[in-house]
Amino acid sequence: MTDGAWIAGFPAAITVCDKDGTILSMNPAACESFAEEGGASLIGSNLLACHPEPARTKVEVLLKSGSRNVYTIEKEGRKKLIYQSPWYENGDYAGFVEISLPLPAILPHFVRDAKAGQKEP
Predict the structure, then answer these.
(1) Residue spans per domain, the chain
(2) Which are the contacts of 79, defined by CB distance < 8 A and separation ≥ 6?
(3) DSSP annotation of 106
(4) What does pTM read for this prediction?
């Protein structure tokens, strides 16, 4: 497997932008997810243009602060985990990665803390 080849076949949408919000890369799932907005042609554009308020302001804050944002959504009956996190190049803040991961309707949750005294079923 070549470096990065796994990203093309990964079943979650992965979008990468620089610290100014310019979209650098989108895997095929991201291109498909954002097909109505332009898909792969969004590469090179600023992701702020893709977000209406209040999401636009939230993204601006994330870009400036380099903080992480994690939440779930439901859209068209499908649940997704949205994970937005900074990425670094040579230790310097370089931008953001957004992963949009489809979730099953029922998601098992396991506590793996030995102190909690709970075990997986």
Answers:
(1) 10-67
(2) 72, 73, 102, 103, 104, 105, 107
(3) S
(4) 0.85
Residue 33 tokens, joined: 């997810």
Predicted confidence pLDDT, tens digits, the chain (121 residues): 456 788 888 889 999 999 999 999 999 999 999 999 999 999 999 999 888 999 899 999 999 999 999 999 998 889 999 999 999 999 999 999 999 999 998 889 888 876 755 555 5
DSSP assignment of 6-74: HHHH-SSEEEEEETT-BEEEE-HHHHHHTGGGTGGGGTTSBGGGG--TTHHHHHHHHHHH---EEEEEE
